[in-house]
Amino acid sequence: MTDDKDVLRDVWFGRIPTCFTLYQDEITEREAEPYYLLLPRVSYLTLVTDKVKKHFQKVMRQEDISEIWFEYEGTPLKWHYPIGLLFDLLASSSALPWNITVHFKSFPEKDLLHCPSKDAVEAHFMSCVKEADALKHKSQVINEMQKKDHKQLWMGLQNDRFDQFWAINRKLMEYPAEENGFRYIPFRIYQTTTERPFIQKLFRPVAADGQLHTLGDLLREVCPSALAPEDNPTPKRQGLDVQACAQKV
Amino acid sequence: MEENEFFGEKTFQRYCAEFIKHSQQIGDGWEWRTSKEALELPLDDFEVTESTATNEVIKYEYHVLYSCSYQVPVLYFRASFLDGRPLALKDIWEGVHECYKTRLLQGPWDTISQQEHPILGQPFFVLHPCKTNEFMTPVLKNSRKINRNVNYITSWLSLVGPVVGLHLPLSYAGAASQDE
Fold first, then answer.
1. Residue A113 Cα distances to A76, A189, A203, B88, B124, angstroms
2. pTM for the complete prediction?
3. Quick one: pLDDT band at residue A97, thresholds 50, 70, 90?
4. What is the 3-state composition of chain B as percent helix, strand, coil, each rounded to the nearest 5?
5. Given an 8 Å threshold on Cβ–Cβ distance, is A113 in contact with B116?
6. Which backbone phi and psi does B105 adopt, to 5 degrees?
7. Which residues contact A10 (CB under 8 A, 6 or more apart)?
């Protein structure tokens, strides 16, 4: 993994310049100015928008404030998707900054999960890590870790600490020398053109003949429409057009 | 090291088919649905109405999906009042019987949480699947010992269902041992 360190850092430190505007029908005591923020691609909306919330709540009365939620061009934003994914899926072809609308009422129960606290984000994040390890290592690595390691992984993400995060994550990215890779690759493919939220299937990193599979092989097998040149945009991973083999963390 | 009782998707489909057959016989309301885009995650759906202590009628909807990550079935459910208002996690939690609460509170991942339904993309409540294998293994081992045929879905659902208000009629047990 050491020669990939630059890529890992680029992915971790990726940012999206965003402009938050209060929804026009929210009741305010005086005018609310938009709020600008650089959002980390690898994090989650409800984890990094405390300042946004405070900024708008300053001009609102307590009784007009319930659970915050975000929307882009009429689409409620799923806070449990990584920020970079939301942007690539919905706004990558628009000009920067990314314009997000902030709401404090009429929570869309049918579309969005509730996020009562940062603990909910932590539970969701750890659940994803756990499922990924079930695919990579039959959950052996994650289950052998102590609670404090799980905590360090989460705190690394929450506090934007690359080294703290990767001190633990590197163990989740290792595989025994005799194998050529993980048991299965943990991946999800998101498209706006489909009804189901994502494609997720079992996919081995190594073929029966011992050849390493590439991202192209994966796409050909699970989502061939993504490779049709005419009407489909190129697959993106964290905003970068994908050319070679990549693994989801 | 004993082999865990994982099972593949084809086996899941077969047990579901047998389960649905009995459901149809007794009018229990389970349906088999496949997603148009892929036959990967079929689901069943069951609606039941239940009254709570406050005399409000609540409609529950249960879906059984197959998790290829954990290679076990997973129970998704949601509940709403008749006017369409969804129940919140704390309302669901209040409906869980005391005897199950201690177990559920033990681990943050052994609990009920709100998650996105992987086919419908809508919020559902889920019983986390990572410990399913742990409690199903002894069940399956014991039935092998007494040479009894077991429908994994029936056994599993009879174990996890009651935690979230889903009770299977006893006739499912009889049906399971008649199959094959």
1. 11, 20, 28, 10, 8
2. 0.86
3. very high
4. 40, 25, 35
5. yes
6. -80, -10
7. none
- Terminal-to-terminal C-alpha distance of chain B: 29
The Cα–Cα gap between B30 and A149 comes to 42
3-state class (DSSP) for residue B81: strand
* Nearest-neighbour CA in chain A from B122: distance (Å): 6
The closest CB to that of B113, out of A111, A123, A139, belongs to A123
Q: Is A75 part of the contact surface with chain B (CB cutoff 8 Å)?
A: no
Of A109, A127, A196, the CB nearest to B86: A109
Identity of the residue numbered A31: E
Token pair, residue A76, equals 């409620």
- Low-confidence spans in chain B with pLDDT less than 70: 1-6, 34-55, 103-110, 176-180
In tens, the pLDDT along B70-94 reads: 988 999 999 998 888 899 888 888 8
For an interface test with A, give the residue of B34, B68, B81 to mutate (most A CBs within 10 A): B68
Query: How many inter-chain contacts (A to B, CB under 8 Å) are there?
Result: 62
Residue type, A2: T
DSSP-H helix ranges across B68-167: 89-95, 98-105, 132-145, 152-160
